[in-house]
C-alpha cells in the first residue's frame, strides 16, 4: 500500500452508541500521540488524516480521525470490510495502517 510510515496494532472493534452507529477501532494511545506529533501539520478538518488500511486480506483507502474525548485516533470500519473479514464489536483485530 502507498504511504510513508507503517503502523501495526491489535485492538478491539467497537460500535458507536448512536442507532445504526459506525464501527471503529481505536489506535493505541501511545501510537496515536506519536502519529499526532509527526503528522499534525498534515491533518485536515476535525483531525482527519488520510490513510490506507489493511485488515486480514482487505486493503482500502480511508482516514483516521482524532477524537479529543478518547485522546486517540479512530479508524472507521466500513460495512463492506466488516462483512468480508467477519468483524463484530468487541472482536480483537490485527490492523495495519499507512500514513
Q: Enumerate the strands of the largest sheet in spatial order, edge to edge or round the barrel.
A: 1-2-5-4-3-6
Integer average pLDDT: 94
Number of strands: 6
Query: From the helix content, strand content and strand pairing, which structural class follows?
Result: alpha+beta
The name of the CATH architecture is Beta Barrel
Low-confidence stretches: none
Principal-axis shape: globular
Molecular structure report:
It is a single chain. The protein has 99 residues and is an alpha+beta fold. It has a single domain, classed as AF2212/PG0164-like (Elongation Factor Tu (Ef-tu), domain 3), CATH 2.40.30.100. Helices cover 18% and strands 45% of the residues. The chain has two helices and six strands. A six-stranded antiparallel beta barrel has the order 1-2-5-4-3-6. The longest helix is centred in the middle third of the chain and has 11 residues, at 29-39. The chain is globular and about 35 Å long.
